[in-house]
Amino acid sequence: MVDIRYDLAFTLYPYEKVAAQDHPPARHPVVVIGGGPVGMALAVDLGQRGTPVLLLDDHEGVGQGSRAICFSKRTLEICDRLGFGQAVHDKGVIWNVGRVFHGETPVFNFDLQPEDGDKFPAFVNLQQPYFEKFATKAARTAQNQGAPIEIRGRNRVTQIDQHDTYAVLTVETPDGSYQIEADWVIACDGARSPSRKMLGLEFKGRVFEDNFLIADVKMTADFPSERWFWFEPPFEGAGQSALLHKQPDDIWRIDFQLGWDIDRDAELDPANIRRRVDAMLSSQTGTVPAYDLEWISIYTFQCRRMEKFVHNRVIFAGDAAHQVSPFGARGANSGLQDIDNLAWKLELVVKGLAGDALIESYDMERSHGADENILNSSRATDFMTPKSAISKVFRNAVLTLAQKHDFARPLVNSGRLSVPCIYDDLPLNGPDMMTGPARTRVGASCPDAPFGDGFLLENIGGKFTLLVLNTQAPQDLCEAGIEIETLITHTPSAELRTRYLGQHDAAVYLIRPDQHIVARWPTFDETALRAALRTAIAKDRV
Amino acid sequence: MSLILHPNIKNTDGFYDTLLGAHDGLSKSESDAFNARLILILANHIGDREILTQALLAAKL
Description:
The complex is a heterodimer. Chain A is an alpha+beta fold. Chain A has 3 domains: 8-93 and 120-203 and 304-372, FAD/NAD(P)-binding domain; 210-301, 2-Layer Sandwich (D-Amino Acid Oxidase, Chain A, domain 2); 438-536, Glutaredoxin. Chain A has helices at 37-48, 73-82, 85-91, 128-144, 194-198, 264-267, 270-281, 332-350, 356-384, 389-404, 494-500, 526-536, and strands at 8-11, 26-33, 53-56, 61-63, 70-72, 97-102, 105-111, 123-125, 149-152, 156-162, 167-173, 176-187, 210-218, 227-231, 241-247, 251-259, 292-301, 304-305, 310-311, 314-316, 322-323, 450-451, 454-455, 465-469, 477-479, 482-489, 507-511, 517-521. Chain B has 3 helices and no strands. Chain B has helices spanning 12-22, 28-46, 49-59. Classes of the chains: A alpha+beta, B mainly alpha. The interface between A and B is small, with 12 and 9 residues.
């Protein structure tokens, strides 16, 4: 049997018996475990590359509850490459104004205007079920166009046996169990990853333990689309911090950081929740708007990661590999960066164009990302929940000064918003032969900019690209069996010049399929380019 | 540039008097909060992370 652990928001891949269940184990190049935002996006990415992928999910669709609600610009850019960024953007809520309070006192407000020349805003708010629905729709669209993606709902992996060059999965279905062989297994099965437990792997790190009460309330009354954040909220029993944040469909997300020792049942009592929510919603106007409680949940987080994300033939991604606090929107967004990093590497390895060293580079690069996220998340947690008397004195000094002086505002830490990870000084990087802008240095993900009638990132996703600004380079370059697309412009937009040329008149950038920069030069140098490409696919590494 | 650790304030006695005077009438917790604000203001004025690191080390004795 396959137990149902949660109710579905949308049924998207109902169980259907397949012939493979009655046959000896079939070999698949890539099997993805888990159809959440990370697993489904990976399936779309692989499928669009023509790499056969089988996705197994133990349910038949998307679970209820808003869960991850902040999707960053980088995530939108990755999703745009996969064909569903616009859908996420269009359904999502864009907010600019944030207000920070300390107890009853307003500390400061900020206004996040979008950056000129980018296709997408800094982030949008959207309930996770919509994100998963759009990702699944993109998978269906790709399937209809011939992409080799197969999704099997209500297929629960119960056992993983590792061999030298493949793994065997035992899969439970409503019609009994069967086995599948996979060259590569990608475990995207969430923070409580059953795959991790099946392999007996640890999930370690600096552990913060905290409980968050989440209440999604529906208000049709006029209420500002702003982000309100309280340090030491003045509402009775509201804990260390509280957050009010807008989602689509007239829903507001309210988070209360309750601490570790709580009485779960009492906290989940709707009367208790309403008392706090009433106090919060009326705090600025004195009146309680009409609202309905749509969804309530308590969740616990730990800030930690697996020591290694690659274990022979099983690779971990997303929350299965690393978990952070919710401050800064670094959970789902880092998971999307994981699969952005992994998909093209898997494609090349499955095609025989690169070796296992390229898979190892996923571990190095995304460990770097996970460490950065854990560091930022830990610092935010330390600011919000001071661990000593003196740290509280300094925290409160910052909040007091921030009311009067803007120098103190950058010290206020209610979560540093997820920005794309830069793979500084890692082995896949080629040479940086320019004193160009820092944000386009080797290892960075490409910032967007207007390009032709559209945007740069619309033109460079999915394959290795040579971006050539104000100089010449040949078309149809090929190295180590990999084709390099050449994209030349002699009329770069102002933003493209600022972000990619700086003080230089011309530049040549080698860009990976995940839009990270491999190398840059002031002029085209074929020998150097070929060497950089080999470096970028770990061709000569053992 | 390195952290200045030789006499650098004119009328040192006057400054010391002003510093203590700023704490007059404050409770222990108010004084602690005042000191924290003062440190943050001075640190921002200095700005240079290298100097600030040297100052943190010097304060450790």
